[in-house]
């Protein structure tokens, strides 16, 4: 069935064959007109955003702020959404994804404090707000977050290196 699919008659047109002389219907200039910027060599003659010498829009508008390449984006889960878990259960990334509260490919999870906390949950997330942590702990549960990675500068790396033989470190 799929091998017999084809467009309706008249739905497609043959490609335009440019630069094939006067008999092609596009004549000597091949549809490019006479002289000027668009007539010259193939390819894009002017850069994208070029407005013929007028100040381009990208330069006319003011610029504000910057794009932080090192930012971390979190999937947000509120404390109230954890009510679907049974009392005393362990809530981690896999459990949240199984219940449809987060997207498996969406990145790290942050717990926020909106809503009522269910009793006795152990929540393992990448980050949690102070309010969310207080609500979970007040209801008899606990929040576990992994420790932040150590930032290693030149000094700490130098200190980590073993001393060379024959030299004493003070």
Short description:
The protein has helices at 57-60, 93-98, 130-138, 154-160, and strands at residues 75-78, 90-91, 109-112, 122-124, 127-128, 142-144. The protein has 170 residues and is α/β, with parallel strands linked by helices.
Task: Kindly describe this structure.
This protein has 170 residues and is of the alpha/beta class. The protein has a domain at 75-144: Ribosomal Protein L15, Chain: K, domain 2, CATH 3.100.10.10. The protein has four helices and six strands, in the order H-E-E-H-E-E-E-H-E-H. The chain has helices at residues 57-60, 93-98, 130-138, 154-160, and strands spanning 75-78, 90-91, 109-112, 122-124, 127-128, 142-144. The strands form two sheets. A three-stranded parallel sheet has the order 1-3-5. A three-stranded parallel sheet has the order 2-4-6. The longest helix has 9 residues, at 130-138. The N and C termini lie far apart (83 Å). The relative contact order is 0.09.
């Amino acid at each position: 069935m799929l091998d017999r699919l084809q467009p309706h008659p008249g739905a497609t047109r043959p490609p335009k064959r440019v630069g094939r002389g006067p008999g092609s219907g596009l004549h000597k200039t091949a549809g490019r007109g006479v002289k000027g910027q668009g007539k010259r060599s193939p390819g894009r003659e002017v850069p994208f955003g070029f407005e013929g010498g007028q100040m381009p829009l990208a330069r006319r508008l003011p610029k504000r702020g910057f794009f932080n390449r090192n930012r971390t984006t979190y999937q947000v889960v509120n404390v109230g959404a954890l009510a679907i878990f049974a009392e005393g259960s362990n809530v981690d990334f896999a459990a949240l994804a199984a219940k449809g509260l987060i997207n498996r490919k969406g990145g790290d999870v942050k717990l926020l404090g909106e809503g009522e906390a269910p009793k006795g949950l152990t929540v393992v997330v990448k980050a949690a707000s102070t309010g969310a942590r207080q609500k979970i702990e007040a209801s008899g549960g606990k929040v576990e977050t992994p420790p932040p990675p150590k930032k290693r500068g030149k000094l700490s790396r130098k200190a980590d290196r073993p001393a060379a033989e024959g030299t004493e470190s003070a």
